[in-house]
Amino acid sequence: MTTIDDLPIRDDLRGRSAYGAPQLDVAVRLNTNENSYPVPDAVIDAIAKAVQAELRDLNRYPDRDAVALRTDLADYLGHGLTTANLWAANGSNEVQQQLLQAFAGPGRVALGFGPSYSMHPLLAVGTGTRWIGALRDPGFGLTPAAAVEQIREHQPDLVFLCSPNNPTGTALDPEVIDAVLAAAPGMVIVDEAYAEFARPGTPSALSLLPGHPRLVVSRTMSKAFGFAGGRLGYLAADPAVVDAVQLVRLPYHLSSLTQAAARAALAQRDALLATVDAIKAQRDRIVGTLRERGLPVADSDANFVLFATGGDQKAVWQAFLDRGVLIRDVGLPGWLRVTAGDPTETSAFLNAAEEILS
Ligand SMILES: *Cc1c(COP(=O)(O)O)cnc(C)c1O
């Protein structure tokens, strides 16, 4: 049997394994931070109509620049943003890949503060960018001074910040973003995949965009909108950044079906985002219940919770799975991450936790 190593693959990809959370057939799946609520009927009808209207024209290429969709996204974000500030792609992973292609790549350096989103280093590797794994402090926080020190040392062409941070859940203090913008010689990407779940009073980096042309805010419809299968991510930045990613994007990268479905979903945002408050309530229930049991739990501004298991997290992860509850081992010794589900799923998790952790 031929293996990867038998092929003339790039040396920097040899021996690597592909990204992937286990997609196991389990009753309660709380491992990939999806929105647990299915798409409501009214939204299904609206998306079906919008997609149907595109079908006769599938002989034609889509709008390469997705202007109507970008206009709708600007309207959703507010903050005085316009079409020229927005760019969209097949998930924010693709947006971030395009940013690396445009601003990093061979001979350049990207830096992120771990533990954070495991795709950031993988996207760097895929684009031939050297990755620097800078560190958060042992309690998972990040101070402006610690961030600046590591940036001064490595002079990265591109910095990833993640706020709220996956897998720890906590949003960054805006002072950290300010300090990083001042110290970084290159681009600063703030991945705000979970922004809609942040606790009240948590500011978005969108408010820092005016006057900061090297700042990019990355967003997605995969989490709060419950549109992970639709694959729609986007960025907000100075219009010059949008010009730059257009140099590297594939022509017609966003299908007309994706553009139509995403626009229909955005038009139905009240119905889709109606689940956010319910999910936040379940998140707060997980945090509160585990803390009552005396477990260390990170503050969460997201739709998931990172909690300490005490001892070997792999065995605890397996014990949850044995009880039909799939959560996530993010490779942090002594910690596991669980997505806040609907009330029934969350109860299943908390009941299993009661058995396993007491
Ligand atoms: C889930 C997640 C994303 C979403 O990626 P998409 O490609 O938009 O589905 C992006 N960033 C972080 C930190 C995430 O956890």
| Major β-sheet strand ordering | 2-8-7-6-5-3-4
CATH domain class of the largest domain: Alpha Beta
Strand content: 5-15%
Q: Could you tell me the mean pLDDT?
A: 96
Structure ligands: pyridoxal-5'-phosphate
Biggest sheet architecture: 7 strands, mixed
Structural class determined from secondary elements: alpha/beta
- Reported by name, the CATH topology of the largest domain is Aspartate Aminotransferase, domain 2
Write a structural description.
This protein has 358 residues and is α/β, with parallel strands linked by helices. It folds into two domains: 4-39 and 274-357, Aspartate Aminotransferase, domain 1 (Alpha-Beta Complex), CATH 3.90.1150.10; 41-271, Aspartate Aminotransferase, domain 2, CATH 3.40.640.10. The chain has twelve helices and eleven strands. The chain has helices at 41-52, 67-77, 92-103, 119-126, 144-154, 174-183, 239-245, 256-267, 269-273, 275-292, 313-322, 343-357, and strands at residues 28-29, 86-89, 109-114, 130-135, 158-162, 187-191, 215-220, 233-237, 304-308, 325-326, 335-339. It has a seven-stranded mixed β-sheet with strand order 2-8-7-6-5-3-4, with helices on both faces. Strands 1-10 form a two-stranded parallel ribbon. Helix 4 links the parallel strand 3 (109-114) and strand 4 (130-135). It is globular, with a radius of gyration of 21 Å. The model has no long low-confidence stretch (mean pLDDT 96). The structure holds pyridoxal-5'-phosphate. Residues 33, 91-93, 117, 162, 166, 191, 193, 220, 222-223, 228, 233 line the site of pyridoxal-5'-phosphate. Pyridoxal-5'-phosphate binds next to helix 3.
